[in-house]
């Protein structure tokens, strides 16, 4: 993989704010081996029982995993999520931000698989674990399906 | 399962509007065997490439599956998503609503598993397929973990 | 996809017996749209509680899904399982054969996704549901990862 | 959870040999926090392309995860796999044993979720990653579904 055009954390943060203005996450750390992404939690993210809604965690897992790929080159913007598996392990604390830590298990030419662990800030107890698979952009135009 | 308190489609729609005001889905059909839920698609749901963002489909799958459980009795409001697996099969059409059709594969005393198929309105091509698992509310207070 | 070399049910059965002699399954029906595969159940497939072991069902799901791809052309023999998700829904009957019905949800140029439902012979109750994803053989030599 | 009847590694190895005589795995390490299980690889485990068949890795993931639960008390023998998700990341080396390392992500009263990483002996490259969910045995008789 070419190292030209390797984007910085602030490049990727700006990309998300421009392309996904409703995303709302903040990238905390970024390297080829791991990313940490924060999701601020407000009242609109809660469900009955004073806990965070599942879809907030699914979107956060997808964002954190995607950051791992983007850190390898801006052409990865064309990577497409092909599947996501998430296990909900416990109730997040209602008024604490969520932090997702993503680590690539494999980055191949056709598929990438990223492991994501989510916990509430200030706690080490996992609230969710996800495995996210991406179909990688082809070098030629073979990424359509 | 008791049939007292079996809620109607409009009861469940009102529940979603009250408890999940940002959810934005519309229940189209509801029975013990299937639910159909619509997600109106606007500009805020699109990602680069003029297609619908993955998290919109994940949230829709979770909502449609949850409706299947709620239709069996309002006490199912305490069912908690324990895992969700989604395969993204193709790009949704950018300015068409999404429709999710959910069918329970199993409704047990401890776990329920629901199959969800998503397509763009006016098309029969699947854009996503999900399997959603719920931990069912205990009869006594044993649903905490 | 080329239609040359479309194999018959007995071609595929012979392929399994030659290449996977311990597989033990019998193809019952085969078309582009569905396959039905039988797994004879003997004492060696049972676990404590007089029910069939989970790995038997996982192997059967993989075989039935693979048959759907093979029916499209013998070059699909190079398709590789990239992920498998299975939900166990109930206990199979101990001394009944298992039947798996596989239907492709998508057959793309890079990925195929197949839905598989498993039940005991003589029963309509599902015992397992699987989603199996394959990385498809490249036209040129790009299938290595 | 009671600590009476916490079985040793050799107790669990003997249990597998008695109850699952075709399992063929060897427990290498065992604690509340992790288990390592070896699967000897012979000719009967290979598929065309001189690599190990997927179902061998699925069965190994299930065994390694189950060992983590059994290490907590022999009553866990009644835990039942409710779902398994596996990503195949690369081709195992043909004539090397496989090693699976399992770590519980959560052990709750109703569900346990275990993370499993598989690699060929002598290599640090992952060949598969699985997430295995178990429905835990009830304290009273409520584990039937």
Task: Explain what this protein looks like in three dimensions.
The structure is a homotetramer of 145-residue chains. A 6-stranded antiparallel beta sheet of chain A has the order 1-2-6-7-8-5. A two-stranded antiparallel sheet of chain A has the order 3-4. Chain A has helices at residues 9-19, 54-70; strands spanning 26-30, 35-39, 46-47, 51-52, 80-88, 98-107, 111-120, 126-135. Chain A has one domain: Hotdog Thioesterase (Thiol Ester Dehydrase, Chain A, Roll). With 145 residues, chain A is of the alpha+beta class. The first copy, chain A, is built from 2 helices and 8 strands; from the N terminus they run αββββαββββ. Chain A is globular, with a radius of gyration of 15 Å. Chains in contact: A-B, A-C, A-D, B-C, B-D, C-D. The A-B interface holds A 19-22, 44, 47-48, 53-55, 58-59, 62, 77, 80-88, 90, 145 and B 19-22, 44, 47-48, 53-55, 58-59, 62, 77, 80-88, 90, 145.
List the helices and strands and how they pair.
The structure is a homotetramer of 145-residue chains.
Chain A: H1 9-19, E1 26-30, E2 35-39, E3 46-47, E4 51-52, H2 54-70, E5 80-88, E6 98-107, E7 111-120, E8 126-135
Antiparallel strand pairs in A: 1-2, 2-6, 3-4, 5-8, 6-7, 7-8
Indicate the multimeric state.
homotetramer
Overall CATH class of chain A: Alpha Beta
The CATH topology label of chain A is: Thiol Ester Dehydrase, Chain A
Please, what is the average pLDDT of chain A?
A: 89
* Widest beta sheet: strand line-up of chain A: 1-2-6-7-8-5
Structural class of chain A: alpha+beta
Shape of chain A: globular
Strand content of chain A: 35-45%
Q: Which pair of chains has the greatest number of interface residues, and how are they split between the two chains? A: A-B, 25 and 25 residues
- Fraction of residues in helix of chain A: 10-25%
* Count of distinct structural domains of chain A: 1
Unreliable runs of chain A: 140-145
Number of strands of chain A: 8
Q: Helical segment tally of chain A?
A: 2
Strand/helix succession of chain A: HEEEEHEEEE
In whole angstroms, the N-to-C terminal distance of chain A is 22 Å
By CATH, the superfamily of chain A comes out as Hotdog Thioesterase
Determine Rg of chain A (CA atoms, Å): 15 Å
CATH architecture descriptor of chain A: Roll
Describe the biggest sheet of chain A? 6 strands, antiparallel
């Amino acid at each position: 993989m070419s190292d030209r055009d390797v984007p910085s954390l602030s490049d990727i943060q700006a990309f998300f704010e421009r392309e996904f203005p409703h995303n709302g996450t903040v990238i905390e750390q970024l390297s080829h081996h791991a990313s940490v992404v924060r999701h601020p939690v407000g009242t609109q993210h809660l469900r009955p029982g004073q806990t965070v809604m599942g879809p907030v965690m699914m979107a956060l897992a997808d964002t954190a995993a995607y950051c791992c790929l983007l850190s390898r080159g801006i052409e990865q913007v064309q990577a497409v999520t092909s599947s996501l598996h998430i296990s909900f392990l416990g109730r997040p604390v209602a008024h604490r931000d969520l932090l997702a830590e993503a680590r690539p298990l494999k980055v191949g030419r056709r598929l990438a698989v990223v492991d994501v662990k989510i916990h509430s800030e200030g706690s080490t107890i996992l609230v969710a674990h996800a495995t996210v698979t991406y179909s990688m952009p082809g070098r030629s135009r073979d990424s359509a399906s």
